[in-house]
Q: What sequence folds into this?
């Protein structure tokens, strides 16, 4: 709230608040404006929860899809390539609509807007995660595998204790970028009624008829959120690099 207040006041001081603009609808110094901002921020929890749940699932699925791509068996490599190419070819918005409206008819299961969004976002992102993991694992020196084999580690333990910890350090920036991407793409779930940041802004626009002012606050919300997440990812990178040097 304080950050949005400072940014709003900066807009006023920069001369954006002309007589034709209705900044009063998001003015935190008035009761109406403060209530409107609280209404907009009420979608923050759903945005964060949706994004974190989706990317957690996509990382797991992406890793499971990446491993067959590293196999010596052509059939497994073909599965990896077909999955990645097919999923990446479908726009996220189309996938969200298909999962929400089409998947219940195919499976016979009722899916609420939250899980429809999670499934669609996770499925779409898993193809990109698969390529990130594949590149990260392939970047590990072959000698690491030979060293693991020399101490009688099986494939699972080699991946778990030797290869993946090193690969994750290398791909962490890419994983952070995908989290930022997920936070932004979560706004598309508003089309099926998910009460996240963008949906809240759309509803407020309908009642206040001030799209420019309200969507400006929405932009600031995403800006602050992504800056915080990016700072967290950079901190984690530095922490892992320090642990590696130690």
A:
């Amino acid at each position: 709230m304080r950050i949005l207040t400072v940014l709003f006041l900066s807009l006023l001081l920069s001369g954006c608040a002309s007589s034709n603009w209705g900044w009063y609808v998001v003015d935190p110094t008035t009761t109406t404006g403060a209530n409107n901002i609280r209404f907009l921020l009420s979608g923050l929890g759903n945005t964060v929860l949706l994004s974190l749940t989706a990317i957690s699932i996509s990382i797991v699925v992406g890793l499971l899809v990446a491993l067959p791509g590293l196999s010596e068996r052509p059939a497994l490599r073909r599965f990896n390539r077909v999955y990645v190419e097919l999923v990446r070819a479908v726009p996220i918005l189309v996938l969200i609509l298909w999962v929400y409206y089409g998947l219940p008819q195919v499976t016979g299961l009722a899916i609420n807007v939250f899980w429809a969004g999670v499934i669609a976002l996770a499925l779409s992102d898993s193809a990109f995660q698969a390529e990130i993991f594949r590149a990260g694992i392939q970047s590990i020196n072959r000698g690491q595998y030979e060293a693991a084999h020399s101490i009688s580690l099986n494939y699972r333990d080699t991946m778990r204790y030797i290869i993946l910890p090193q690969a994750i350090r290398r791909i962490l920036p890419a994983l952070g970028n995908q989290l930022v991407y997920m936070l932004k793409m979560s706004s598309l779930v508003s089309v099926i009624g998910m009460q996240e940041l963008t949906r809240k802004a759309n509803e407020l626009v309908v009642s206040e008829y001030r799209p420019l002012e309200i969507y400006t606050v929405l932009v600031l919300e995403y800006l602050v959120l992504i800056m915080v997440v990016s700072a967290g990812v950079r901190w984690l990178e530095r922490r892992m690099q320090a642990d590696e040097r130690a």
